[in-house]
Amino acid sequence: MQNNKKLTIKEIAARLQVSTATISNAFNRPDQLSVELREHILAECNRIGYAGPGAGRRRLGGSGVIGVIFGTELARSLDDDETRALICGLAGELDHRGKALLMLSNSAIGLSVLEHRGAALIEGVICIGETEVPRLGERFSRCGVVALETQLEGVPSVRVDHYAGARAAVLHGIRRPVTSAAVLVPRLLRSAPVCRVQEADALARGDGRDVQRLLGCLDTLDASGLGRAPGRIWHLPDTGSLTARQAAREALECHPRPDLLLCMDDRIAMAAIDVATELGLSVPEDLRVLGYGGTVPQPLLTTVVQPEARALGRLAAKMYFGDVAESDCLLAPQLRVGASCP
């Protein structure tokens, strides 16, 4: 048997001329393959000394600590409800397995801790949200890496298709004629104040969850003939009530006033409905409002319901430990129609 401990699942798949998912299924989900194919793959892996996806990190279980890298500053990440829910789901699965969680920001100090002391401190890495770390999968391959709500080259991931979710919202919103639309999106910039933002400036931060929602809106509006909402994109630093009300009021006091408001968070949408009422507008007759998240229990709001964040965190942990096949797991959100945009 050859000693090829550094071989990756991608390299093994290329050698055997199959997909990485097929290699992972051979080790973790045998029911997904024929007996002949699985036996062939296992025999070849054994011959070249590949122990299977996740085997290396299961062997490195001495510290009992899983490092978590956030795509943004630690305080900013923990101020986001969705990110906190992801962490809760992840932590619950780690608790069940007797593992600890070490949270580190996407900073020079945090990365230095992982790179120079990682062998002693951690046995694996989970990245939450978009990261600016180059070649993260390669740099921490000794530990094993799983991406959560982001995509990294050569790294298995768990993501929601936010682009498709936003696209579904727009397609529903334009079923009636629309003259003007505005898009309200949190966390597009690092700046604190509510402000209008140009598409190019919003995209400069990368390709994360909120940018994907914005792109889904703009591409669909453009394809419908309404254009890319020039001058009608608002950045919100958070989803608090005061912030959301300010952005909604600015949008609704534009001339011409938008008759479709695309809010990429349910809390923003609910605040927008309140502001519209204060301005004497009727929802949905004068203004149609769509949200995103599925967090509003009553049937008042038309919104995109995404998979529950805690469940995503648990799924990422299960993928890390090899309980589910390592792959790019892209989950589809669903549109739920309510009174704000019937």
UniProtKB/TrEMBL annotation:
Signal peptide span: none
Keywords: DNA-binding, Transcription, Transcription regulation
Family annotation (Gene3D superfamilies): 3.40.50.2300, lambda repressor-like DNA-binding domains (1.10.260.40)
Domain HTH lacI-type: 7-62
Pfam families: Peripla_BP_3 (PF13377)
SUPFAM superfamilies associated with the record: lambda repressor-like DNA-binding domains, Periplasmic binding protein-like I
Record-level Gene Ontology MF annotations: DNA-binding transcription factor activity; transcription cis-regulatory region binding
InterPro entries noted in UniProt: HTH_LacI, LacI/GalR-like_sensor, Lambda_DNA-bd_dom_sf, Peripla_BP_I
UniProt-recorded name of the protein: LacI family transcriptional regulator
Organism expressing this protein natively: Marinobacterium nitratireducens
